Fold:
Amino acid sequence: MPAFKKILVFILMCEARLVLWRYAPRIIVITGSVGKTTTKDAIYSVLADHVHVRKSEKSMNSEIGVPLTILGQGNAWKNPFKWFVNIVRGILLLIIPQKYPGWLVLEVGADRPGDISSLARWLRPDIAVMTGVPEIPVHVEYFHSTEDVAHEKLSLLRYVRPGGTVILNGDDVRLEGMKKDIKEKCLTYGIEGFNDFFATGASISYEKGMPTGMKFEMHHGGVSEPATLYGALGTPRVYSALAAVAVGKIVGVGQAAAARSLGASVPSPGRMRTLDGTRNSIIIDDTYNSSPAAALSALDTMREIKKMPPGQGKPKRKIAILADMLELGKYSAEAHKLVGARAATCLDLLITVGFRARGIAQAALDAGMPDGNIRQYEQNEAVRAGNELESELQKGDIVLVKGSQSMRMERAVEEIMAEPMHASSLLVRQDDEWLKKA
Structure:
């Protein structure tokens, strides 16, 4: 780590710890290998109408991002002056009493061993939410095994305050197995009925024949409540909503009120968000990042979307633009093959971007997808892939776009979206610093 960054991290972390000591907010921390940001946003939506709460913006879940959220400051990127301003504002927050949130909703990630424990030991959350650790998690490259990733995520639980609460994805076998070792109060959520908070009837909702969101019935303590989530697709959204309802219950927000808040929330960019495409097509924008579990889940959603013959107002073709999945280390080749085999079962047209994604194309071909239904593009050809697809999109086509962060697949989305002039508010990575990058 460069010396400047080390000094910056030290100063911001010291200020953040002092701010927590001075204002004593209650802290909710979310971690896991899938769905952290979606869960964080869902929790914030449930709480925002009832308590003074602040959440991590975007995916600020690192040793810099977490302190910045606590201090209420933004990322200054490579601007030393703006970093100086952030530090000064942190000092002022300590010196001059201000109205500070009573609750903080923080997302914590792990790229390497020790990342979570180094933050958790001073955050000391009142509520810890674990979203899940799939068989091949993202960021596994710097860990010896998937189990090591799971242990790193679970290290958060050691630092929950006495009397606090742990909320686990009970459908995740790795997490459910840890329940007996948790000393604090523990609640579970999931699709399966044995969880404390569970959902039934989860399915895609439609308007005028096109997919618009997810609907389901949520249950807790013998009470049921219908819920509809708009603007994004996929079962992971249901899981995030259930986690948010569980947190709401602890904070004092009822199930019905939580359902209303979730129904009114706007999904974050790049996370299975539905956008209008050119020629009345529909885009499923899942470009924030990609991992094997997330890619397989997105393809399962594509399979579930109803498809009817032309002229009946339903999706005509199911198309996906899938790019490299990075930071998988020794699991990379296997992961891309798994995604390709799944793609062959649910797509009419598969487009890949990147040299690792060639494994997706080859696996789809091996699984029986016709060669004429598969197209391949090079590493930096997201724009070209989107541009060439745009010229042939038809009314009713539905297009999934997904890839790891550095593949910049939002650029492909911009080529096929109906209103590219609104890209800055609808797509991920639209900050000036991102837009300057090649």
User: Anything to note?
Assistant: The longest helix spans residues 3-23. The first strand starts at residue 26 and ends at 31. The domain at 3-264 is CATH 3.40.1190.10 (UDP-N-acetylmuramoyl-L-alanine:D-glutamate ligase).
